[in-house]
TrEMBL record:
Catalyzes the addition of an amino acid to the nucleotide precursor UDP-N-acetylmuramoyl-L-alanyl-D-glutamate (UMAG) in the biosynthesis of bacterial cell-wall peptidoglycan. This is UDP-N-acetylmuramyl-tripeptide synthetase. It comes from Deinococcus humi. The gene is murE. Keywords: ATP-binding, Cell cycle, Cell division, Cell shape, Cell wall biogenesis/degradation, Cytoplasm, Ligase, Magnesium, Nucleotide-binding, Peptidoglycan synthesis. Residues 108-308 form the Mur ligase central domain. One of its GO terms (molecular function) is magnesium ion binding.
Length: 493
Protein backbone atom coordinates (compact mmCIF):
# COMPACT_ATOMS: atom_id res chain seq x y z
CA UNK A 1 0.00 0.00 0.00
CA UNK A 2 1.22 3.51 -0.73
CA UNK A 3 1.36 6.27 1.86
CA UNK A 4 -1.39 8.35 0.25
CA UNK A 5 -3.74 5.38 0.14
CA UNK A 6 -2.98 4.69 3.80
CA UNK A 7 -3.69 8.33 4.67
CA UNK A 8 -7.01 8.06 2.82
CA UNK A 9 -7.86 4.86 4.73
CA UNK A 10 -7.34 6.83 7.94
CA UNK A 11 -9.58 9.64 6.64
CA UNK A 12 -6.69 12.09 6.54
CA UNK A 13 -6.95 14.67 3.78
CA UNK A 14 -3.42 15.81 3.11
CA UNK A 15 -1.89 17.67 0.26
CA UNK A 16 1.78 17.67 -0.79
CA UNK A 17 2.31 14.21 0.65
CA UNK A 18 5.05 12.07 -0.88
CA UNK A 19 3.83 8.65 -1.93
CA UNK A 20 6.34 5.94 -1.05
CA UNK A 21 5.41 2.31 -0.74
CA UNK A 22 4.54 1.42 2.87
CA UNK A 23 5.76 -1.97 4.10
CA UNK A 24 4.27 -1.95 7.56
CA UNK A 25 3.45 0.06 10.64
CA UNK A 26 4.96 -0.02 14.12
CA UNK A 27 4.78 1.82 17.44
CA UNK A 28 8.18 0.54 18.59
CA UNK A 29 11.26 2.38 17.28
CA UNK A 30 13.39 -0.73 17.77
CA UNK A 31 11.19 -2.64 15.38
CA UNK A 32 11.07 0.01 12.63
CA UNK A 33 12.57 -0.99 9.29
CA UNK A 34 12.72 0.16 5.67
CA UNK A 35 9.32 1.25 4.36
CA UNK A 36 7.62 1.35 7.76
CA UNK A 37 5.33 4.04 9.10
CA UNK A 38 6.19 4.84 12.72
CA UNK A 39 3.35 5.80 15.05
CA UNK A 40 4.67 8.12 17.77
CA UNK A 41 2.67 7.34 20.91
CA UNK A 42 2.84 9.47 24.05
CA UNK A 43 2.81 6.68 26.61
CA UNK A 44 2.90 6.59 30.37
CA UNK A 45 6.72 6.34 30.38
CA UNK A 46 8.05 7.51 26.99
CA UNK A 47 7.10 9.79 24.17
CA UNK A 48 7.53 8.03 20.84
CA UNK A 49 8.45 11.42 19.34
CA UNK A 50 11.87 11.06 21.03
CA UNK A 51 12.77 8.33 18.55
CA UNK A 52 12.14 10.02 15.20
CA UNK A 53 15.83 10.25 14.21
CA UNK A 54 16.26 6.60 15.09
CA UNK A 55 13.33 5.43 12.93
CA UNK A 56 14.49 7.61 10.04
CA UNK A 57 17.91 5.93 10.20
CA UNK A 58 16.15 2.54 10.21
CA UNK A 59 14.44 3.43 6.92
CA UNK A 60 10.94 4.46 8.06
CA UNK A 61 9.06 6.56 5.49
CA UNK A 62 6.58 8.58 7.59
CA UNK A 63 5.39 9.32 11.11
CA UNK A 64 1.86 9.40 12.51
CA UNK A 65 1.31 11.30 15.76
CA UNK A 66 -1.00 13.56 17.70
CA UNK A 67 1.25 16.60 17.20
CA UNK A 68 4.95 17.39 17.30
CA UNK A 69 6.27 18.63 20.64
CA UNK A 70 7.25 22.32 20.64
CA UNK A 71 10.50 22.93 18.80
CA UNK A 72 10.76 19.43 17.32
CA UNK A 73 11.04 19.13 13.56
CA UNK A 74 10.21 15.75 12.11
CA UNK A 75 12.87 14.35 9.78
CA UNK A 76 10.10 12.42 7.99
CA UNK A 77 6.69 13.39 6.60
CA UNK A 78 4.47 13.85 9.68
CA UNK A 79 0.76 13.00 9.54
CA UNK A 80 -1.25 14.41 12.41
CA UNK A 81 -3.99 12.16 13.78
CA UNK A 82 -6.53 12.72 16.56
CA UNK A 83 -5.64 9.52 18.43
CA UNK A 84 -2.30 7.79 17.87
CA UNK A 85 -3.26 4.36 19.25
CA UNK A 86 -6.46 4.31 17.19
CA UNK A 87 -4.40 5.30 14.12
CA UNK A 88 -1.92 2.49 14.84
CA UNK A 89 -4.76 -0.02 14.91
CA UNK A 90 -6.52 1.39 11.84
CA UNK A 91 -3.29 1.53 9.84
CA UNK A 92 -2.41 -2.03 10.88
CA UNK A 93 -5.85 -3.29 9.82
CA UNK A 94 -5.69 -1.41 6.50
CA UNK A 95 -2.15 -2.63 5.69
CA UNK A 96 -3.17 -6.22 6.45
CA UNK A 97 -6.32 -5.68 4.35
CA UNK A 98 -8.75 -6.30 7.21
CA UNK A 99 -8.08 -10.03 7.62
CA UNK A 100 -10.69 -10.52 10.36
CA UNK A 101 -13.40 -9.89 7.77
CA UNK A 102 -12.31 -13.11 6.06
CA UNK A 103 -12.39 -15.12 9.31
CA UNK A 104 -14.83 -15.93 12.05
CA UNK A 105 -13.11 -14.49 15.09
CA UNK A 106 -13.98 -15.52 18.63
CA UNK A 107 -12.73 -13.13 21.34
CA UNK A 108 -12.40 -14.25 24.93
CA UNK A 109 -12.29 -11.83 27.83
CA UNK A 110 -12.68 -11.99 31.61
CA UNK A 111 -10.44 -11.84 34.67
CA UNK A 112 -9.63 -15.57 34.83
CA UNK A 113 -10.13 -18.39 32.41
CA UNK A 114 -9.26 -16.55 29.18
CA UNK A 115 -6.33 -18.76 28.19
CA UNK A 116 -8.05 -22.02 29.08
CA UNK A 117 -11.31 -21.05 27.38
CA UNK A 118 -9.48 -19.80 24.28
CA UNK A 119 -7.51 -23.05 23.94
CA UNK A 120 -10.61 -25.15 24.53
CA UNK A 121 -12.61 -23.17 21.99
CA UNK A 122 -9.94 -23.49 19.32
CA UNK A 123 -9.76 -27.25 20.01
CA UNK A 124 -13.56 -27.62 19.75
CA UNK A 125 -13.65 -25.62 16.53
CA UNK A 126 -10.96 -27.86 15.07
CA UNK A 127 -12.95 -30.90 16.21
CA UNK A 128 -15.84 -29.41 14.25
CA UNK A 129 -13.70 -29.31 11.12
CA UNK A 130 -12.89 -25.60 11.08
CA UNK A 131 -9.27 -24.65 10.37
CA UNK A 132 -8.62 -22.51 13.40
CA UNK A 133 -5.82 -20.28 14.65
CA UNK A 134 -5.17 -18.93 18.13
CA UNK A 135 -3.64 -15.87 19.79
CA UNK A 136 -3.16 -16.36 23.51
CA UNK A 137 -0.95 -15.61 26.49
CA UNK A 138 0.89 -18.86 25.90
CA UNK A 139 1.69 -18.02 22.26
CA UNK A 140 -0.01 -18.08 18.91
CA UNK A 141 -0.84 -20.88 16.52
CA UNK A 142 -1.65 -21.05 12.84
CA UNK A 143 -3.99 -23.91 11.87
CA UNK A 144 -0.92 -26.21 11.70
CA UNK A 145 -1.09 -26.37 15.51
CA UNK A 146 2.55 -25.33 16.07
CA UNK A 147 2.96 -22.90 18.95
CA UNK A 148 4.87 -19.68 18.15
CA UNK A 149 5.86 -16.70 20.27
CA UNK A 150 5.86 -12.94 19.75
CA UNK A 151 9.04 -11.02 20.57
CA UNK A 152 7.43 -9.42 23.63
CA UNK A 153 5.29 -11.39 26.07
CA UNK A 154 1.67 -10.26 26.01
CA UNK A 155 -1.79 -11.77 26.38
CA UNK A 156 -2.85 -9.60 23.46
CA UNK A 157 0.02 -8.00 21.53
CA UNK A 158 -0.13 -4.58 19.85
CA UNK A 159 -2.39 -4.07 16.82
CA UNK A 160 0.28 -4.61 14.10
CA UNK A 161 1.05 -8.07 15.49
CA UNK A 162 -2.64 -8.90 15.91
CA UNK A 163 -3.45 -7.88 12.34
CA UNK A 164 -0.35 -9.51 10.81
CA UNK A 165 -1.15 -12.77 12.58
CA UNK A 166 -4.76 -12.69 11.41
CA UNK A 167 -3.47 -12.11 7.86
CA UNK A 168 -1.10 -15.08 8.23
CA UNK A 169 -4.12 -17.12 9.30
CA UNK A 170 -6.11 -16.12 6.23
CA UNK A 171 -3.13 -16.93 4.00
CA UNK A 172 -2.85 -20.34 5.71
CA UNK A 173 -6.48 -21.03 4.78
CA UNK A 174 -7.98 -20.62 8.26
CA UNK A 175 -11.74 -20.41 8.70
CA UNK A 176 -11.70 -19.15 12.28
CA UNK A 177 -9.48 -17.61 14.95
CA UNK A 178 -9.71 -17.47 18.72
CA UNK A 179 -8.17 -14.44 20.36
CA UNK A 180 -7.68 -13.62 24.02
CA UNK A 181 -8.61 -9.99 24.56
CA UNK A 182 -7.14 -8.52 27.75
CA UNK A 183 -8.56 -5.40 29.33
CA UNK A 184 -5.28 -3.61 28.51
CA UNK A 185 -5.74 -4.56 24.87
CA UNK A 186 -9.29 -3.22 24.81
CA UNK A 187 -8.26 -0.02 26.60
CA UNK A 188 -5.21 0.60 24.40
CA UNK A 189 -6.89 -0.18 21.07
CA UNK A 190 -4.79 -3.27 20.35
CA UNK A 191 -7.85 -5.09 18.97
CA UNK A 192 -9.57 -2.11 17.37
CA UNK A 193 -10.41 -3.08 13.81
CA UNK A 194 -11.05 -6.74 14.59
CA UNK A 195 -14.39 -7.96 13.34
CA UNK A 196 -15.73 -10.18 16.13
CA UNK A 197 -18.14 -12.99 15.34
CA UNK A 198 -18.42 -14.07 18.97
CA UNK A 199 -17.41 -12.52 22.30
CA UNK A 200 -16.98 -14.92 25.21
CA UNK A 201 -17.20 -13.54 28.75
CA UNK A 202 -15.69 -15.67 31.53
CA UNK A 203 -16.17 -13.56 34.67
CA UNK A 204 -14.98 -10.36 36.26
CA UNK A 205 -13.33 -9.83 39.60
CA UNK A 206 -11.17 -7.08 41.07
CA UNK A 207 -7.83 -6.91 39.21
CA UNK A 208 -5.48 -4.55 37.37
CA UNK A 209 -6.69 -1.52 39.36
CA UNK A 210 -3.19 -0.02 39.06
CA UNK A 211 -4.00 0.50 35.38
CA UNK A 212 -7.78 0.98 35.31
CA UNK A 213 -8.22 2.87 38.58
CA UNK A 214 -11.65 1.46 39.44
CA UNK A 215 -13.51 -1.82 38.88
CA UNK A 216 -16.10 0.17 36.95
CA UNK A 217 -13.42 1.37 34.48
CA UNK A 218 -12.06 -2.17 34.22
CA UNK A 219 -15.57 -3.44 33.40
CA UNK A 220 -16.14 -0.63 30.89
CA UNK A 221 -13.02 -1.63 28.93
CA UNK A 222 -13.88 -5.33 28.95
CA UNK A 223 -17.47 -4.60 27.97
CA UNK A 224 -16.23 -3.22 24.63
CA UNK A 225 -15.65 -6.76 23.36
CA UNK A 226 -19.31 -7.68 23.93
CA UNK A 227 -20.53 -4.39 22.45
CA UNK A 228 -18.55 -4.97 19.27
CA UNK A 229 -19.45 -8.64 18.69
CA UNK A 230 -22.22 -10.04 16.52
CA UNK A 231 -22.93 -12.63 19.24
CA UNK A 232 -22.03 -12.90 22.93
CA UNK A 233 -21.56 -15.98 25.11
CA UNK A 234 -22.27 -14.77 28.65
CA UNK A 235 -21.74 -16.33 32.05
CA UNK A 236 -25.05 -16.44 33.94
CA UNK A 237 -23.09 -17.12 37.17
CA UNK A 238 -21.29 -13.77 36.94
CA UNK A 239 -23.17 -10.82 38.48
CA UNK A 240 -21.74 -8.46 35.82
CA UNK A 241 -23.60 -10.33 33.08
CA UNK A 242 -26.88 -8.49 33.72
CA UNK A 243 -25.10 -5.36 32.50
CA UNK A 244 -23.94 -7.10 29.32
CA UNK A 245 -27.32 -8.44 28.29
CA UNK A 246 -28.60 -7.02 25.03
CA UNK A 247 -25.32 -5.35 23.99
CA UNK A 248 -24.28 -7.82 21.28
CA UNK A 249 -26.31 -8.74 18.20
CA UNK A 250 -27.43 -12.00 19.82
CA UNK A 251 -26.50 -13.94 22.90
CA UNK A 252 -26.20 -17.35 24.56
CA UNK A 253 -25.82 -17.87 28.31
CA UNK A 254 -24.09 -20.61 30.28
CA UNK A 255 -24.04 -21.66 33.92
CA UNK A 256 -21.94 -24.16 35.85
CA UNK A 257 -23.69 -23.32 39.10
CA UNK A 258 -27.33 -24.09 38.48
CA UNK A 259 -28.49 -20.69 37.19
CA UNK A 260 -31.08 -20.54 34.42
CA UNK A 261 -29.05 -20.59 31.17
CA UNK A 262 -28.99 -21.93 27.60
CA UNK A 263 -25.99 -24.14 28.42
CA UNK A 264 -25.76 -25.62 31.89
CA UNK A 265 -23.91 -28.37 33.71
CA UNK A 266 -25.09 -30.74 36.43
CA UNK A 267 -23.91 -33.96 38.11
CA UNK A 268 -20.31 -32.71 38.08
CA UNK A 269 -17.79 -35.34 39.18
CA UNK A 270 -14.14 -34.49 39.78
CA UNK A 271 -11.94 -37.50 39.16
CA UNK A 272 -8.22 -38.18 39.17
CA UNK A 273 -8.13 -38.00 35.37
CA UNK A 274 -10.53 -35.15 34.85
CA UNK A 275 -14.12 -34.00 35.03
CA UNK A 276 -17.38 -35.57 33.95
CA UNK A 277 -20.69 -33.72 33.89
CA UNK A 278 -24.11 -33.66 32.28
CA UNK A 279 -24.74 -30.85 29.77
CA UNK A 280 -28.13 -29.39 29.02
CA UNK A 281 -28.00 -27.27 25.89
CA UNK A 282 -29.83 -26.11 22.78
CA UNK A 283 -28.14 -29.10 21.07
CA UNK A 284 -29.72 -31.52 23.56
CA UNK A 285 -28.60 -33.27 26.73
CA UNK A 286 -25.39 -35.25 26.88
CA UNK A 287 -22.68 -36.43 29.25
CA UNK A 288 -19.26 -34.81 28.81
CA UNK A 289 -15.78 -36.00 29.81
CA UNK A 290 -13.05 -33.39 30.05
CA UNK A 291 -9.53 -34.55 30.93
CA UNK A 292 -8.77 -31.42 32.98
CA UNK A 293 -8.26 -30.79 36.68
CA UNK A 294 -10.18 -28.03 38.48
CA UNK A 295 -13.92 -27.60 38.86
CA UNK A 296 -13.78 -24.09 37.34
CA UNK A 297 -13.00 -25.77 34.02
CA UNK A 298 -16.64 -26.89 33.79
CA UNK A 299 -17.54 -23.23 33.23
CA UNK A 300 -14.71 -22.81 30.72
CA UNK A 301 -15.92 -25.91 28.86
CA UNK A 302 -19.51 -24.64 28.71
CA UNK A 303 -18.30 -21.29 27.37
CA UNK A 304 -16.11 -22.99 24.76
CA UNK A 305 -18.93 -25.31 23.69
CA UNK A 306 -21.44 -22.48 23.38
CA UNK A 307 -18.98 -20.48 21.25
CA UNK A 308 -18.13 -23.45 19.02
CA UNK A 309 -21.82 -24.30 18.65
CA UNK A 310 -22.43 -20.73 17.53
CA UNK A 311 -19.98 -21.40 14.67
CA UNK A 312 -21.75 -24.64 13.77
CA UNK A 313 -20.26 -27.42 15.95
CA UNK A 314 -22.62 -30.34 16.63
CA UNK A 315 -23.15 -32.11 19.97
CA UNK A 316 -21.19 -35.16 18.73
CA UNK A 317 -18.27 -32.98 17.70
CA UNK A 318 -18.29 -31.19 21.05
CA UNK A 319 -18.38 -34.44 23.04
CA UNK A 320 -15.47 -35.87 21.04
CA UNK A 321 -13.59 -32.57 21.19
CA UNK A 322 -13.85 -32.23 24.97
CA UNK A 323 -12.73 -35.82 25.51
CA UNK A 324 -9.63 -35.33 23.35
CA UNK A 325 -8.58 -31.94 24.79
CA UNK A 326 -4.97 -32.13 25.96
CA UNK A 327 -5.10 -28.97 28.10
CA UNK A 328 -3.04 -25.80 27.90
CA UNK A 329 0.72 -26.41 27.80
CA UNK A 330 2.24 -26.06 31.25
CA UNK A 331 -1.05 -25.16 32.98
CA UNK A 332 -2.24 -27.96 35.20
CA UNK A 333 -0.93 -30.20 32.42
CA UNK A 334 -1.73 -33.79 33.30
CA UNK A 335 1.09 -36.15 32.33
CA UNK A 336 0.06 -39.46 33.75
CA UNK A 337 -2.53 -41.01 35.94
CA UNK A 338 -4.00 -44.41 36.43
CA UNK A 339 -3.89 -47.55 38.41
CA UNK A 340 -0.16 -47.98 38.41
CA UNK A 341 1.41 -44.57 38.07
CA UNK A 342 1.42 -41.53 40.32
CA UNK A 343 -0.43 -38.56 38.82
CA UNK A 344 2.09 -35.95 37.62
CA UNK A 345 1.05 -32.38 36.82
CA UNK A 346 3.11 -29.51 35.38
CA UNK A 347 1.87 -26.04 36.26
CA UNK A 348 3.36 -22.57 36.01
CA UNK A 349 2.13 -21.44 39.45
CA UNK A 350 5.07 -19.46 40.83
CA UNK A 351 3.49 -17.11 43.35
CA UNK A 352 2.27 -18.09 46.84
CA UNK A 353 -1.45 -17.51 46.00
CA UNK A 354 -1.34 -19.43 42.72
CA UNK A 355 0.60 -22.29 44.33
CA UNK A 356 -1.93 -22.38 47.15
CA UNK A 357 -4.83 -22.56 44.68
CA UNK A 358 -3.19 -25.31 42.63
CA UNK A 359 -2.40 -27.45 45.70
CA UNK A 360 -5.89 -26.97 47.15
CA UNK A 361 -7.44 -28.10 43.84
CA UNK A 362 -5.22 -31.17 43.63
CA UNK A 363 -5.81 -32.18 47.23
CA UNK A 364 -9.51 -32.80 46.56
CA UNK A 365 -8.73 -35.52 44.02
CA UNK A 366 -5.63 -37.10 45.59
CA UNK A 367 -6.40 -40.28 47.50
CA UNK A 368 -2.72 -40.75 48.42
CA UNK A 369 0.04 -38.27 49.23
CA UNK A 370 0.42 -34.86 47.63
CA UNK A 371 3.97 -33.90 46.57
CA UNK A 372 5.17 -30.55 45.26
CA UNK A 373 8.40 -29.43 43.61
CA UNK A 374 9.06 -25.70 43.58
CA UNK A 375 11.91 -23.18 43.24
CA UNK A 376 12.04 -19.41 43.19
CA UNK A 377 13.66 -17.11 40.65
CA UNK A 378 16.80 -15.12 41.40
CA UNK A 379 17.60 -11.55 40.46
CA UNK A 380 15.43 -8.65 41.54
CA UNK A 381 12.16 -10.51 40.83
CA UNK A 382 10.29 -10.40 44.09
CA UNK A 383 12.81 -11.98 46.53
CA UNK A 384 10.17 -11.53 49.26
CA UNK A 385 8.13 -14.44 47.90
CA UNK A 386 10.80 -17.12 48.51
CA UNK A 387 9.95 -17.86 52.16
CA UNK A 388 6.14 -17.68 51.54
CA UNK A 389 6.52 -20.15 48.65
CA UNK A 390 8.37 -22.52 50.96
CA UNK A 391 5.70 -22.04 53.59
CA UNK A 392 2.75 -22.70 51.23
CA UNK A 393 4.45 -25.74 49.67
CA UNK A 394 5.25 -27.32 53.01
CA UNK A 395 1.91 -26.44 54.62
CA UNK A 396 -0.35 -27.76 51.84
CA UNK A 397 1.62 -30.71 50.43
CA UNK A 398 2.61 -33.81 52.35
CA UNK A 399 6.15 -33.38 51.13
CA UNK A 400 7.87 -30.49 49.32
CA UNK A 401 11.04 -30.53 47.23
CA UNK A 402 12.92 -27.23 46.88
CA UNK A 403 15.06 -26.81 43.79
CA UNK A 404 16.46 -24.31 41.29
CA UNK A 405 14.32 -22.00 39.13
CA UNK A 406 16.17 -19.40 37.05
CA UNK A 407 18.49 -18.35 39.87
CA UNK A 408 20.52 -16.06 37.57
CA UNK A 409 22.93 -13.86 39.55
CA UNK A 410 21.51 -14.78 42.99
CA UNK A 411 23.36 -17.62 44.77
CA UNK A 412 21.05 -20.63 44.59
CA UNK A 413 21.89 -21.54 48.18
CA UNK A 414 20.51 -18.19 49.40
CA UNK A 415 17.19 -18.81 47.62
CA UNK A 416 16.90 -22.37 48.92
CA UNK A 417 17.72 -21.34 52.52
CA UNK A 418 14.89 -18.74 52.38
CA UNK A 419 12.43 -21.36 51.10
CA UNK A 420 13.52 -23.76 53.83
CA UNK A 421 13.08 -21.03 56.44
CA UNK A 422 9.46 -20.46 55.27
CA UNK A 423 8.80 -24.20 55.39
CA UNK A 424 10.13 -24.48 58.95
CA UNK A 425 8.40 -21.38 60.29
CA UNK A 426 4.94 -21.66 58.67
CA UNK A 427 4.73 -25.12 57.11
CA UNK A 428 4.96 -28.68 58.34
CA UNK A 429 8.72 -28.68 57.79
CA UNK A 430 8.57 -31.81 55.64
CA UNK A 431 10.82 -31.04 52.72
CA UNK A 432 13.89 -32.16 50.81
CA UNK A 433 16.26 -29.80 49.00
CA UNK A 434 17.82 -30.97 45.73
CA UNK A 435 19.49 -28.06 43.86
CA UNK A 436 19.64 -29.68 40.38
CA UNK A 437 16.11 -29.48 38.92
CA UNK A 438 16.35 -32.59 36.73
CA UNK A 439 17.64 -34.63 39.66
CA UNK A 440 14.92 -33.19 41.87
CA UNK A 441 12.21 -34.19 39.37
CA UNK A 442 13.62 -37.71 39.08
CA UNK A 443 13.72 -38.00 42.88
CA UNK A 444 10.21 -36.73 43.60
CA UNK A 445 8.61 -38.89 40.91
CA UNK A 446 10.66 -41.86 42.10
CA UNK A 447 9.33 -41.39 45.65
CA UNK A 448 5.65 -41.08 44.68
CA UNK A 449 3.37 -44.09 44.59
CA UNK A 450 0.20 -44.97 42.73
CA UNK A 451 -2.63 -42.79 44.11
CA UNK A 452 -0.21 -39.93 44.85
CA UNK A 453 -0.09 -36.61 43.00
CA UNK A 454 3.16 -34.83 42.11
CA UNK A 455 2.89 -31.14 41.23
CA UNK A 456 5.91 -29.77 39.35
CA UNK A 457 5.38 -26.06 39.82
CA UNK A 458 6.93 -22.83 38.58
CA UNK A 459 8.33 -23.48 35.09
CA UNK A 460 5.22 -24.56 33.20
CA UNK A 461 5.84 -24.18 29.46
CA UNK A 462 9.10 -22.15 29.72
CA UNK A 463 11.81 -23.43 27.41
CA UNK A 464 14.96 -22.33 29.26
CA UNK A 465 16.42 -22.75 32.74
CA UNK A 466 18.70 -19.88 33.71
CA UNK A 467 21.69 -20.47 35.97
CA UNK A 468 24.43 -18.06 37.06
CA UNK A 469 26.66 -18.67 34.05
CA UNK A 470 24.57 -20.73 31.65
CA UNK A 471 21.10 -20.93 30.17
CA UNK A 472 19.97 -24.49 29.58
CA UNK A 473 17.27 -25.49 27.11
CA UNK A 474 14.42 -26.78 29.27
CA UNK A 475 11.37 -28.97 28.76
CA UNK A 476 9.76 -29.78 32.10
CA UNK A 477 7.27 -32.17 30.53
CA UNK A 478 10.04 -34.15 28.80
CA UNK A 479 12.12 -34.35 32.00
CA UNK A 480 9.05 -35.54 33.91
CA UNK A 481 8.14 -38.10 31.26
CA UNK A 482 11.67 -39.52 31.41
CA UNK A 483 11.36 -39.84 35.19
CA UNK A 484 7.98 -41.51 34.80
CA UNK A 485 9.38 -43.96 32.25
CA UNK A 486 12.07 -44.89 34.78
CA UNK A 487 9.41 -45.21 37.50
CA UNK A 488 7.30 -47.64 35.54
CA UNK A 489 10.10 -50.18 35.11
CA UNK A 490 10.86 -52.42 38.07
CA UNK A 491 14.40 -51.01 38.26
CA UNK A 492 13.02 -47.51 38.73
CA UNK A 493 11.01 -48.37 41.82
C1 LIG B 1 0.11 -0.82 31.07
C2 LIG B 1 0.36 -1.13 29.63
O1 LIG B 1 -0.24 -2.02 29.07
N1 LIG B 1 1.29 -0.40 29.02
C3 LIG B 1 1.56 -0.55 27.61
C4 LIG B 1 1.74 0.85 27.05
O2 LIG B 1 2.84 1.38 27.73
P1 LIG B 1 3.06 2.92 27.90
O3 LIG B 1 1.81 3.70 27.66
O4 LIG B 1 3.74 3.09 29.20
O5 LIG B 1 4.08 3.20 26.71
P2 LIG B 1 5.57 3.68 26.89
O6 LIG B 1 6.42 2.57 27.40
O7 LIG B 1 5.55 4.98 27.61
O8 LIG B 1 5.99 3.91 25.38
C5 LIG B 1 5.36 4.89 24.55
C6 LIG B 1 5.72 4.59 23.13
O9 LIG B 1 7.14 4.75 22.95
C7 LIG B 1 7.64 3.63 22.28
N2 LIG B 1 9.03 3.42 22.68
C8 LIG B 1 9.39 3.45 23.99
C9 LIG B 1 10.71 3.23 24.36
C10 LIG B 1 11.67 2.99 23.36
O10 LIG B 1 12.86 2.79 23.62
N3 LIG B 1 11.26 3.00 22.06
C11 LIG B 1 9.97 3.20 21.69
O11 LIG B 1 9.64 3.17 20.52
C12 LIG B 1 6.74 2.47 22.73
O12 LIG B 1 6.78 1.39 21.82
C13 LIG B 1 5.38 3.14 22.78
O13 LIG B 1 4.76 3.09 21.52
O14 LIG B 1 2.02 0.75 25.66
C14 LIG B 1 3.20 -0.01 25.34
C15 LIG B 1 3.35 -0.08 23.83
O15 LIG B 1 2.54 0.76 23.15
C16 LIG B 1 3.09 -1.41 25.88
O16 LIG B 1 4.30 -2.10 25.61
C17 LIG B 1 2.83 -1.34 27.38
O17 LIG B 1 2.66 -2.63 27.89
C18 LIG B 1 3.42 -2.88 29.08
C19 LIG B 1 4.86 -3.26 28.72
C20 LIG B 1 2.80 -4.00 29.88
O18 LIG B 1 3.45 -4.58 30.73
N4 LIG B 1 1.54 -4.30 29.67
C21 LIG B 1 0.86 -5.37 30.42
C22 LIG B 1 0.37 -4.90 31.77
C23 LIG B 1 -0.30 -5.86 29.57
O19 LIG B 1 -0.64 -5.30 28.54
N5 LIG B 1 -0.90 -6.96 30.02
C24 LIG B 1 -2.06 -7.55 29.38
C25 LIG B 1 -2.59 -8.75 30.16
C26 LIG B 1 -3.08 -8.37 31.49
C27 LIG B 1 -3.69 -9.57 32.17
O20 LIG B 1 -4.90 -9.83 31.96
O21 LIG B 1 -2.96 -10.28 32.89
C28 LIG B 1 -1.69 -8.12 28.02
O22 LIG B 1 -2.55 -8.07 27.10
O23 LIG B 1 -0.59 -8.68 27.89
N1 LIG C 1 -13.65 -19.84 34.82
C1 LIG C 1 -12.81 -19.59 35.82
N2 LIG C 1 -13.24 -18.98 36.95
C2 LIG C 1 -12.40 -18.71 37.98
N3 LIG C 1 -11.09 -19.03 37.99
C3 LIG C 1 -10.61 -19.63 36.90
C4 LIG C 1 -11.43 -19.93 35.75
N4 LIG C 1 -10.67 -20.52 34.83
C5 LIG C 1 -9.43 -20.57 35.33
N5 LIG C 1 -9.38 -20.04 36.58
C6 LIG C 1 -8.19 -19.88 37.45
O1 LIG C 1 -7.34 -18.90 36.85
C7 LIG C 1 -6.04 -19.47 36.55
C8 LIG C 1 -5.58 -18.92 35.22
O2 LIG C 1 -6.40 -19.46 34.20
P1 LIG C 1 -6.23 -18.96 32.70
O3 LIG C 1 -4.78 -18.99 32.36
O4 LIG C 1 -7.15 -19.72 31.84
O5 LIG C 1 -6.75 -17.47 32.89
P2 LIG C 1 -6.35 -16.12 32.15
O6 LIG C 1 -7.52 -15.24 32.28
O7 LIG C 1 -5.91 -16.44 30.78
O8 LIG C 1 -5.14 -15.59 32.95
P3 LIG C 1 -3.72 -15.17 32.32
O9 LIG C 1 -3.97 -14.09 31.33
O10 LIG C 1 -2.95 -14.74 33.54
O11 LIG C 1 -3.19 -16.43 31.68
C9 LIG C 1 -6.25 -20.98 36.58
O12 LIG C 1 -5.08 -21.67 36.98
C10 LIG C 1 -7.35 -21.14 37.59
O13 LIG C 1 -6.79 -21.16 38.88
Amino acid sequence: MRLQALAAALNLSLTDLPDPQVRGVTHNADWAGPGDVFVAIRGARFDGHNFLQEVQRAGAVAVLGEGLPDGLVSPLPYLRVPDARAALADAAAALADHPSRALRVVGVTGTDGKTTTAWLTRHLLRAAGLKTGLLSTVGYELPDGQLRHFPAHFTTPEAPQVQRTLRELVTAGADAAVLEASSHALALDRVRGVDWAVAVWTHLSREHLDFHGTVENYFTEKRKLVERARHAVLNADDPWTVRLTGLAGGETTYSAEGEQADWSASEVEEGVNGLTFRVTSPLGEFRANLPMIGRFNVANALAGMAAAAQLGATAEQLIAGLASFRGVPGRMELLAAGEDLPRVIVDFAHTPPSLEKALATLRTTTPGRLWVLIGSAGGPRDPGKRAPLGEVASRLADHAVFTEEDCRDTPLDDILREMERGAREGGQGTFTTIPDRAEAIAWIIGQARSGDTVLLAGKGPEDTLERAHETLPWDEVAVARAALAAWSTPAGQ
